[in-house]
Design a protein that fits this description.
Blueprint (H helix, E strand, L loop, with lengths): L1 H10 L13 H14 L3 H20 L10 H23 L6 H25 L24 H18 L5 H6 L1
Helix pairs in contact: 2-3, 2-4, 3-4, 3-5, 3-6
């Protein structure tokens, strides 16, 4: 669906490299999912699990959309984001890959590398993927986290808290008690 969206934007002559490249985390994850389905990999699943369960659920709860239902953008947004959550749960249950504390830290470190890379890309393109250069133009949860750049630091702390929260349901019972 992500590739289809880009193709549609290109055909309509509406493609904008500042907004339409698949650089947001959810789009990157959506592109990586078919690879994980065909070739399950523990390390990749761990990262995707945390990114999807902590981040994509946030995107579903606080969407940044300019069009409502039944616009294609609306349908694409909720199909991609909802599909990511379904996939993360499916892969965790079916493949039996259970993230642990180490995978939480690996995923958080991978997020830092991704965000730093995306920040550099944003600087190069003059874009604002993942809202690293400023808050979205519409009201969002980021409005409660302070001004730029402070909301980025608060977001880091919240991401870590969210990672811990989404880890708890998949930890073996004895590890939850130890923590």
């Amino acid at each position: 669906m992500v590739v289809g969206w880009i193709a549609i934007r290109l055909v309509l002559g509406q493609f904008d490299h500042k907004t339409d490249l698949p650089l947001d985390i959810c789009n990157i994850v959506a592109l990586a999912l078919p690879l994980l389905m065909w070739n399950p990999n523990r390390r990749v699943h761990e990262v995707l699990y945390f990114w999807v369960m902590a981040g994509t659920i946030q995107a579903v709860l606080t969407p940044h959309l300019f069009e409502g239902f039944p616009h294609f953008t609306f349908i694409k947004y909720f199909t991609v984001h909802g599909g990511l959550v379904v996939f993360a749960v499916y892969a965790t249950v079916v493949y039996g890959i259970r993230p642990g504390w180490r995978s939480l830290w690996r995923s958080f470190f991978a997020l830092q590398i991704y965000i730093l890379s995306l920040y550099l890309i944003n600087r190069l393109l003059g874009s604002n993927y993942a809202y690293l250069m400023g808050k979205p133009p519409t009201a969002s949860a980021l409005d409660y986290l302070g001004d730029y750049p402070w909301y980025l630091l608060v977001s880091e702390g919240l991401a870590l808290v969210m990672f811990i929260l989404v880890l708890l349901p998949v930890l073996p019972r004895r590890e939850v008690v130890k923590a």
